[in-house]
Design brief:
The complex is a heterodimer of chains A (366) and B (287).
Chain A (H helix, E strand, L loop, with lengths): L1 H57 L13 H7 L3 H7 L8 H7 L12 H29 L8 H8 L1 H4 L2 H11 L6 H8 L24 H27 L3 H9 L4 H29 L2 H8 L10 H10 L3 E3 L3 E3 L2 H33 L1
Antiparallel strand pairs in A: 1-2
Helix pairs in contact in A: 1-15, 2-3, 4-15, 5-10, 5-12, 8-13, 10-12, 10-13, 12-15, 14-15
Chain B lengths: L7 H30 L18 H8 L8 H32 L5 H12 L7 H11 L1 H5 L2 H25 L4 H8 L4 H12 L1 H16 L3 H6 L8 H9 L8 H36 L1
The chains are: A mainly alpha (366), B mainly alpha (287).
């Protein structure tokens, strides 16, 4: 009897404790939802719904003629139910036509100079070259400023980050002005050095290096501009990481007779990596989507040769009109939406790749 | 390491290198100042260093920066409203969501995290067509063609970043304090307001000002949404000044405007430099 009671007692107690625990957890979950709700509601309305809405647009021939409608949902339904189409001014479904027009370059017939695969290739190559220069210059300058006993270190460090501190939009426009063939300071500088100073940096169509037809002269201009803008970020990250490397490591290596070069490859670089990898990921994304430099400096020109995906996406919404038979010139929002979706997929793939790379390095060090 | 000073020869060599880099860094900035101060205010500067200096260009820009009937103060007010509004909105909503993501385990957490990480990498151009069409239908072309429309579209892009950044920051705040407060009988709301928020002030400041800097020079959305000069922003006016043909641009005024637009951004950046760097790298590691 007494033993039975003893066994029941703790059970009942644990049951009571469990329900208390449960109640506490339920209230925590409620709190969590309450804190998330405002952001979630806003994001569902202005981030996730547009993504879904854009998918529908990309399967239709939506144009500026469809911008007026008494109901957003009615308009969507109208493209599926013909009897509603008239009432809600619905566009018609065109299936995958918009996507096909982009990836097959059929769009070039109505949009001169459009070449999706060239843009994609250019965008990838542009990113790789830029990030390479950002990282190597950033690390090199960080090392220079880390030299023991160098005068005015703090002064240089403070001024070197100016390109990063200045608004990218403003500096892009300033660089465009500097490379202007008539009023720009670069040609003026060349004239001071005895060169005729008449280079048409942004307009020349022939590539300066014949066997690199992917790169017109304006590519080198946007490259210089973006290198100028991008290296201080890498320098700052590298400087922080360098200061965390203990001096004893170098002393030990020196005693073992390691040369300066060997010390760089075996100590400095491996210890910089954990800090540099996330910075390189951020840098890759920012360069891949570097709207300001391309749009304001070269304008994607000449002949769309320096266009990247985001500038093309913007142009399709903002500047492009196509001539539809029997309708006239319209803004092709359907095509723009399909293009944006393709960009979305490309970005997702790049994120996956960079994530995998960074995870691989993480595993390597932990 | 060796405590003795650098040999003079290497010191001079390094100094030369440093000065060369400094020259490359400063050249575009010196050029902007040179043309801004050019008293001739000409469309075609002919020398790297203008003869004399004057502040005429600044005066002109403050009075009438563009051919449109809008002055500098109005442009600055629009930019301030846009940048400030978007920044405030995304920090308030973002911090509250970040707290939940950082501190609670609840059904749907994984899905929610994944969802906002996916949209995090989207440039704001990626949903431009949809937002433009949608806002035309939902709030009407009138309101879409104003700071309100652009503000809504910009919040869509800045909120995921705010959540991500704040979550990264709150993750670094040790839990001991909250647990102690909990034992003392504090509710979750009290812990959030009394403990998390005060400790998260640096994170809040960086997220807010980072959002502000983004809004201050936002271009693509405003250019697509706004055609009414009353709502033009500084970034739009600056682009408008440069125009299509370089030879017609009043370069001195353009340069003066560039300087005026940059000053607040540079000041904010330098004030927060330390936090910006650590914030970005911490967030990067946490993913």
């Amino acid at each position: 009897m007494s033993t039975a009671q003893e066994t029941i007692g703790p059970q009942a107690a644990s049951k009571a404790r469990l329900s208390l625990e449960e109640r506490r957890r339920a209230s925590t979950v409620r709190t969590a939802y309450t804190y998330i709700a405002p952001a979630a509601v806003v994001m569902v309305i202005i981030t996730f719904f547009p993504l879904f809405y854009q998918l529908w647009i990309s399967f239709t021939n939506f144009s500026n003629l469809n911008l007026r409608s008494s109901s957003l949902l009615g308009q969507m339904l109208g493209s599926f139910i013909p009897s509603l189409a008239e009432t809600y001014n619905s566009p018609s479904l065109v299936g995958l036509e918009n996507y096909w027009r982009i990836v097959s370059n059929e769009l070039a017939q109505i949009l001169s100079g459009f070449d999706f695969w060239r843009i994609l290739l250019f965008n990838v190559v542009w990113t790789i070259i830029n990030v390479f220069f950002h990282v190597s210059i950033g690390i090199a300058v960080a090392l220079l400023l880390n030299v023991q006993g160098l005068w005015f270190k703090r002064f240089y460090r403070a001024l070197y980050i100016l390109p990063w501190a200045m608004p990218g939009l403003v500096m892009a426009m300033v660089w465009k002005n500097m490379f202007d063939d008539q009023t720009g300071s670069v040609n003026m500088l060349l004239r001071l050095l005895g060169h005729p100073g008449n280079i048409r940096w942004l307009q020349q169509i022939d590539p300066p290096i014949r066997f690199l037809p992917l790169f017109p002269l304006s590519f080198y201009v946007v490259l210089i501009t973006n290198i100028w803008l991008g290296w201080p970020f890498m320098m700052t990250v590298a400087t922080g990481a360098l200061q965390g490397i203990p001096h004893e490591l170098y002393e030990a290596a020196s005693m073992d007779g390691a040369s300066r070069w060997q010390r760089f490859w075996t100590i400095t670089l491996p210890l910089l990596r954990p800090a540099m990898v996330p910075a390189i990921m951020i840098g890759t994304m920012m360069t891949f989507n570097q709207f300001n430099v391309i749009y304001f400096v070269s304008g994607g020109g000449p002949l769309h040769q320096t266009e990247i995906l985001v500038t093309q996406a913007f142009r399709l919404v903002n500047e492009t009109t196509i001539n539809l038979a029997g309708v006239g010139n319209v803004r092709p929002y359907g095509i723009a939406a399909a293009f944006a979706y393709i960009v979305f997929v490309v970005l997702a793939i790049i994120t996956l790749i960079t994530n995998r790379i960074s995870r691989a390095t993480e595993a390597y060090y932990e | 390491m060796n405590r003795e000073t650098l040999p003079l020869r290497s010191q001079l060599l390094y100094q030369l290198l440093c000065l060369l880099i400094l020259l490359i860094v400063l050249f575009p900035l010196l050029w902007v100042f040179a043309i801004a101060l050019d008293p001739r205010d000409i469309a075609r500067p002919t020398s790297l260093i203008p003869p004399g200096a004057s502040l005429q260009a600044f005066a002109k820009v403050l009075q009438k920066p563009t051919p449109n009937p809008v002055n500098f103060a109005e442009l600055a007010r629009n930019s301030l409203l846009l940048a400030g509004g978007v920044s405030l909105f995304s920090v308030v909503l973002g911090t509250s969501a970040a707290y939940a993501f950082s501190r609670f385990r609840f059904p749907g957490r994984q899905v929610g995290m994944l969802a906002f990480v996916i949209v995090l990498m989207l440039p704001n151009v990626a949903t431009l067509a949809a937002l433009f069409v949608m806002l035309n239908l939902l709030i009407g072309p009138q309101l879409r063609n104003s700071i309100v429309g652009v503000g809504i579209a910009m919040t869509a892009a800045s909120l995921p970043f705010a959540i991500w950044n704040m979550k990264g920051f709150i993750d670094t705040i040790p839990r001991d304090l909250e647990e102690a407060a909990h034992i003392d009988g504090a509710s979750l709301n009290q812990t959030f307001i009394r403990i998390i928020l005060p400790l998260a002030v640096p994170g809040l400041a960086v997220t807010a000002l980072w959002g502000f800097l983004g809004g201050w020079t936002e271009f693509a959305l405003s250019w697509q949404f706004i055609s009414n000069p009353r709502w033009f922003t500084l970034a739009m006016a600056l682009y408008g000044m440069q125009g299509q043909y370089a030879s017609n641009t009043p370069w001195s005024q353009f340069a003066a405007m560039s300087i005026l637009v940059s000053i607040p951004a540079v000041l904010i950046f330098f004030a927060l430099q330390r936090y910006i760097v650590s914030g970005l790298t911490v967030g990067g590691v946490k993913g």
